[in-house]
Design goal:
By secondary structure, the chain is mainly alpha-helical. It has 2 domains: 67 residues, no CATH class; 62 residues. It is 61% helix and 12% strand. A 3-stranded antiparallel beta sheet has the order 1-3-2. It is elongated and about 75 Å long.
């Protein structure tokens, strides 16, 4: 096999194992990290140190079994789902409030804030979901 192709396959396996959380962390003191090391290391803000993700060593057969298992790390978080449901509930209550075309001033004073509140909750849920995906990366 071509060495470049083999290197690509090895990197893809490595990234997939890391993405699935099958790795160990090796920490480095910031004073010990050279410029070359900074290119491949990530900085852990919580630990205040550089970290290297070292995937577990697996055989090709084990890797094929791992790939068959659905990746649970990309699931939407429970908190994001709560905000999605609250936003959708508020939004649909705004529509059920009556006529969406505002027959009176009361309709506008109830419907518009409910609409914007629903959208706000949905937006907050999306932000939480995105932040958790970034954290799990």
């Amino acid at each position: 096999m071509d060495p470049k192709l083999q290197e690509y396959i090895d990197n893809a396996k490595r990234e997939e194992l890391i993405r699935r959380g099958l790795y160990e962390k090796k920490y480095y003191d910031p004073k010990e990290v050279t410029g070359e090391m900074r290119k491949r290391l990530k900085y852990d803000i919580i630990a205040n140190r550089f970290v290297e993700f070292i995937p577990y060593k697996v055989t090709d057969e084990e890797y094929q079994e791992i790939i068959k298992v659905p990746n649970m790390r990309n699931k939407t978080s429970g908190m994001a789902i709560v905000f999605y449901v609250l936003g959708a509930l508020i939004f649909f209550l705004c529509i059920a409030n009556g006529n969406i075309f505002f027959q009176s001033s009361r309709d506008a004073t109830v419907t518009l804030p409910a609409f914007f509140s629903g959208m706000l909750f949905i937006g907050i849920g999306k932000i939480i979901d995105l932040l958790e995906k970034i954290l799990n990366k």
